[in-house]
Write a structure and sequence with these properties.
five-stranded antiparallel sheet; minor pseudopilin epsh fold; six-stranded antiparallel sheet; about 190 residues
């Protein structure tokens, strides 16, 4: 009697047939969803968040560590170079921390077909440089070296007006060092993040 009670009890786990049915359903859902995923826009949005966090962190680091932090833009290599300028001379020297923030493939500096913001039309609107690269310096007071900014978008938007909404803008205010973030959506620039 005891053996019969155990054999009629609930079994644990899944049968092979149940697992196959679940796998088939997942495949059907993936085949419907994957073509709708916009990888280029996803990459631009990811870079937008990463750049935003890099600029915010650079300004805060300058205040907390009481020395300048320089963020240089290397558009040819698709990256930001962050330099902790411990002696505030604007030159990268031995022993000063240096790090790089590289963007995903397909993210470029520029705004594509999106209209220009008041900061200007160029891809990078910064007049000061570190070496040969345009750069923004965050000072220990929290201020920035100049008012300016830059745009990013997808490579496809540079050649196709249908992708104007890939454009993002970063505007840096000199007096406060604050970065204001914009996305182009619905035919206009919209402020985001802060």
């Amino acid at each position: 009697m005891h053996q019969y009670a155990q054999s009629t009890g609930r079994r644990a786990g899944f049968t092979l047939l149940e697992l196959v049915v679940v796998m088939v359903l997942m495949g059907v859902v993936a085949s419907i969803a994957l073509p709708r995923i916009d990888v280029a826009r996803f990459r631009v949005n990811s870079a937008f968040r990463e750049i935003g966090m890099t600029l915010l962190a650079a300004q805060r680091a300058a205040v907390l560590k009481q020395h300048s932090v320089v963020v240089a833009i290397d558009s040819a290599r698709g990256l930001l170079r962050v330099h902790e300028d411990r002696n505030n001379n604007g030159v990268i020297e031995s022993g000063e921390p240096l790090r790089f923030v590289r963007f995903e493939e397909g993210v470029v500096f520029g705004r594509g077909p999106a209209p220009a913001r008041p900061m200007g039309e160029g891809a990078i609107m910064l007049t000061k440089t570190q070496g040969t690269l345009p750069a923004i310096t965050f000072h220990r007071s929290g201020s920035a070296g100049e008012t300016g900014g830059f745009y990013i978008t997808s490579g496809r938007a540079l050649h196709d007006a249908r992708h104007a909404e890939d454009a993002k803008a970063f505007e840096i205010q000199k007096a406060t060092g604050r970065t204001v973030f914009y996305q182009y959506a619905g035919g206009s620039w919209r402020r985001t993040f802060r």
